[in-house]
Amino acid sequence: MTARSRSACLTGIGGSALLTLLFVIPSFLPAQEAPEKEREERPELPPLTATIPPEEALAAIKRRATKILEARRAARRLKFSGELAQAVGYETNPANASSHKGNTYEDISLYLLLSKKLTSTLTWEGTYSGNYLKYEDYGDGDYTDHTLTPTKLRWQPGRTWRVEGWTDVEYNYYPKGKDSAYRNLKFVGRVRQYVYGKSYHQIQYEWFVRDYATRNARTGAGAETLSNRVDVRNRLRYKVGTTVNKVLMSCENEYYWHDSNDARNDFYDTEVWKINNSVSGNVTKKLYLSGGFAFERKNYAERKVNGMSAEARYDDKYTLSSGASYDVNDTWKVSYDLTFDHLDSNEPTGEYDNAKHAFKMTARF
Predict the structure, then answer these.
(1) Residues of the chain falling short of pLDDT 50
(2) What's the alpha-carbon Rg for the chain, to the nearest Å?
């Protein structure tokens, strides 16, 4: 046998051995297990290569369909959640007056939510919000507030649009400043459009009527009438927002006009323009930070400044806010908030500064 024929023979033997290894070795290796998540999600389905009787395959399909149906029913069940919070804080000027006097306070709040998915695109919500604020010394600022939203409907036909409408019924009571207590009825409509996935813009309209339980309206001469003071407000709000690297940034423009039946120099009739900027996001899985800046210009219709000047009053308000919250666990959350207000006005007696600190503990259920 020549060298060339021996080489060809060895090559053929080597090729045959390689093919034998490729076909034989896998039969001795254990099959790789499927990922744990996939096994949990589809434990009833056999491997695609298995041969099973038709009745078993049909039973597996039925079990799968039953689970999907149960998940859809669970999504449409009535859901309940809530929060109970206790806050203690300090304000440098709780009266928001030109005279400064700090005071500590406690604030207890309760929030309850009922929600139900009526259809695949329509959701109903009902909420209650209660608040009790009490100062150590400044008794005129103590109040109890109850707000009920019996009907809030959210229609979201797809990923792009969301339409909402709701009604608020509010009762606010000041034990030592009863002239400030009021009842409030508000109607709100909002339309939001999502663009580019994580960005949106929305427009919102609000109308409310507020009735003061113990304060009467005045005539142009300043005499009290027999009618309660009633305020009516129309408000337009336009907001844009986007999320960048899990940080939410938003900017909202707000304009409203306020009419009152108090005719004394149209004391409470105003036009207001406000811009509010905010940024918020999670620093870690449990730590959440937020910050904001707002500017508000309030023009009074005919309310004059003191003195000989005949010009109408205007106020410029600047607000800085920041906050941090930490999720201790699924139930408890602790937070700290700081808000600073500065008011400039052509009426010097109305100017003020106020810094508000609040430490809060919240229980979620």
Answers:
(1) 1-42
(2) 33
